[in-house]
Design goal:
Helices cover 40% and strands 21% of the residues. β2, α4 and β3 form a beta-alpha-beta unit. The chain has a domain of 165 residues: Rossmann fold. It is an alpha/beta fold and 245 residues long. The two termini are 28 Å apart. It has 8 helices and 7 strands; from the N terminus they run ααβαβαββαβαααββ. Strands 3-2-1-4-5-7-6 form a 7-stranded mixed β-sheet, with helices on both faces.
């Protein structure tokens, strides 16, 4: 199940004279579901498989965190596989996204209790976690603060718990980097985005979204305190890693 569809994403459909940095404001919140499904290859399948992972790693009486929960698709997905005694915790620093998230969680009639907080995930304390999501969130965190965040999450996770880390990734091989970069843009065009929309959104994200390689992510997860880590899903230059405490 996924949240109800919002409006169609047309935020970059008209020429913008001066493109600022991408911000998760009310205009983005209204179209976010359409935006991410048309922009991130494999996103829908990733969500559809999350309940299986949650069922295997979720533990009775624990917490399941979604860091950068946006409008709630990740929380709704994992809830389908978690024990009813799990407490769902969604954290995001954009109130417009949390407002839509709350509406979507209410509409989903989840069995679990849930709580949403508008705060910085870097300043949050984590405890008694068996599941944590970083679903296309870490890429917006300054690179020098990523390891401290992962370490905080790992320290608050119970043995046997799991982190799902989904990210846009880059590649050391310049040929592969160029090819998958262009395939990603082909994917967006195939979903109805114009060349202008693709170009203007890329410009808006350029200074705020900083991808890393899979090797860099694995090294950080190991340093943070996770015992096992591997890619469980990849489509073009987007991947999801499973890290087990």
């Amino acid at each position: 199940m996924h949240p109800p569809d919002g409006s169609k994403d047309q935020l970059f459909a008209r020429p913008i004279e001066q493109i600022g940095s991408f911000v998760f404001d009310d205009s983005v919140a209204q179209v976010f579901d359409d935006m991410i499904r048309r922009s991130v290859p494999g996103y829908g399948m990733t969500l559809s498989l999350m309940p299986l992972i949650a069922k295997r790693f979720g533990q009775q009486g624990t917490k399941a965190y979604d860091l950068g929960c946006s409008i709630g698709a990740g929380l709704i997905a994992i809830a389908d596989g978690l024990p009813n005694s799990t407490e769902l915790v969604g954290i995001d620093n954009a109130q417009p996204m949390l407002d839509r998230c709350a509406d979507n969680l209410k509409a989903a009639n989840l069995e679990q209790t849930w709580e949403l907080s508008c705060k910085d995930i870097l300043e949050t304390e984590y405890s008694n976690a068996s599941i944590a999501l970083l679903n296309f969130t870490l890429q917006f965190v300054p690179i020098d603060k990523r390891l401290p965040l992962l370490s905080k999450v790992a320290s608050g996770m119970n043995p046997g718990g799991a982190l799902l880390l989904s990210e846009k990734i880059r590649f050391n091989d310049s040929c592969i980097q160029k090819s998958l970069f262009e395939l990603h843009h082909d994917y967006k065009r195939s979903n109805g985005y114009s060349d202008m929309e693709v170009s203007q959104k890329r410009a808006a994200l350029e200074d705020v979204l900083k991808p890393e390689t899979i090797e860099e992510h694995k090294a950080s997860l190991e340093k943070a305190g996770f015992s096992h880590c591997e890619v469980w899903f990849q489509c073009f230059n987007f991947a999801s890693l499973l890290a087990i405490k």
